[in-house]
Amino acid sequence: MFTPDSSAEPSRGSELSASQQAIPLADLLDRARTALQSNDWDRAIAAYEMAIERDPEIRVAYWELGVALILADREEEAQTLWFSVMFAAGEFEAKWIGELLTTLVSEADRYRASDQLHLAWGLRRHAYEIAPNNAANTIELIDLALDTDQLDPEELTDWNVATTIAANLDVNRDRWLEVCLRLLETCRTDAALPAIVRATFLRKDMTDRERQRLYPKLAHVALSVGVKQQRSADGLALAQVALEFVPDDFQVLCHTVMFYRQQRDFTQAIAQAERCEQVAPTPTDRVFATTLRLLALLSTGGRWSEAQSVAAEYRDRLSAVIAENPRNLGETQALRLLTSTFCLGYLRDRPDLDRPLINQAAALAQTNIASHHRDRLKRYHHAHHTRRTTTQNRPAQIRIGYLSDSLRSHSVGWLARWPFAYHDHDRFEIFVYFINSDNGEAWRGDPVQQWYVDRADHVRFCGIDSAEIADQIAEDAINILLDLDSLTVDIGCTVMALKPAPIQCSWLGFDATGLPTIDYYLADHLTLPENAQKYYTETIWRLPHSYIAIDGFEQAVPTLHRRDLGIDPDAMIYFSNQTGQKRNPDLMRLQLEIVRDVPGSQLLIKGIADGLAVQASFGAIADELGVDRDRLHFWVRRKARRNTGRIWRSPMWCWIPTLITAQRPHSKRCGRAFRS
Fold first, then answer.
1. 487 secondary structure, DSSP code
2. What is the pTM (predicted TM-score) of this model?
């Protein structure tokens, strides 16, 4: 027997009328349930209250009355009502909680069956609060949260899902596997998701077949989160779980190298790259793995001699693959062969030797990429020919397309604005293709991206599917396609390899790709030496006056002052801002020789690398040259990322003199052109 605290019950009339007293209790409950199922919650509440007043001992009426109160947005009253009943439960508490849970679950299932998902989700939330360790309810709660787009990433932690799944061996494995796959497919993640997946894989009752079903999704999401969503820490956590179960997965291993580099864990990046080389299934894959090791070593900023040794291995392996001339490479393999040449420009000042190798790799990659898109390439070629030979209905404007992942707060985005700003829109129709933009969500709110959006005639927010991007460019009938990223963005390389536009050019972002499908490479008299055409397959089109013209740059108020670094107010300050792969010891030596020869001068050093390795390298050269280490100031990297061209445009716009050494590679001569 129990008598709930009357003060905790919902308000109702003090007495039932004679007509109400005449209604059988079973009929009252039927009326209440009918009203509840019709979403007439006020009528349901009134009927349940009458039933309880008739018979205060009928527990199911309290459970169902609470459901009606929740659905009527009177949650506190429902919780108070249930608490008052449970207060009298005594030794029957577990049984009564089970009854209440059954009621909530039953009603949630009914609402789900009628596609009233938000109501079902709300009831499942209350069921969780009553029985947080009930795995079956937690699974359905997650599924409904995904259905209604109400899953807060932190809730996976709050709900302690990993522990619940691991501890409940009686859970419906098929149902959990289905929901777990959905979790992975949505690419939602927080610190809890890797633990949830790991707990799922480690369940004793999980079969190998079920693991094999789940694993591809896990691997895909690890890469999607880490690459597409640019959340390397989350991607790495998921990839580490994947590698626990398939340690030799070459694709996942390759991406973990990148994730570790982005997390500045260069020791692990190098170790994973070595593992990639060991498990690489083909010579082409081994070339890419060697590139990963090379970039990991260079990224430290202090292991240059090791990097040079690995670079020799890389050139030998790449040359062997080119000599073999494979025609059956997968599209990803071909693309990696092409982009692997990205690192060569950092290592030596011999474009006459390196460019032919880059060009051969690009030609081989393009041949293999084309083999996967024969029909598409024929369609593009036919469209180009038709537009070229048809004079009727020819558009008055030339259509120019800009293809880039970097038209945002990025060095390319900042620098490319002024040529873009002065297009004659009477003569040219401007299209912008934002790569990896997630339908505009990836960089929403970015002021530089918005600058381009406001000034383009047409904007296309693209994903990461190169074929889809190329189809869009072809559909837009672009006349001239300008790639701004070159080898730094693999998606753009594939698009250019498909040649969706009749005239294709490279400019600004990096050295030329060497792809046969790119017609022109824009330069000037400083960017490339006079004899450069000998080792470029693209026709070099030299701009007449300047590689890039800038009509002003934003200036900010300085936040770092000499006094913060203990530098004398009258001292000459030199600034070196580089990523680790650009810390060539020969250039470091030149910088320190200047510091040595200018009395009292100081060198401020900043960049992305292994800080201790960079300090050790600079320190060793300084000791050798007799430069006091106290004249070196190492500045921890902040969020703003700018390359040399962007860094030095600001002081030049303020008429502050700058100094640069001229060398043959594009990456070094380009800086000189910026400053001309």
1. G
2. 0.78
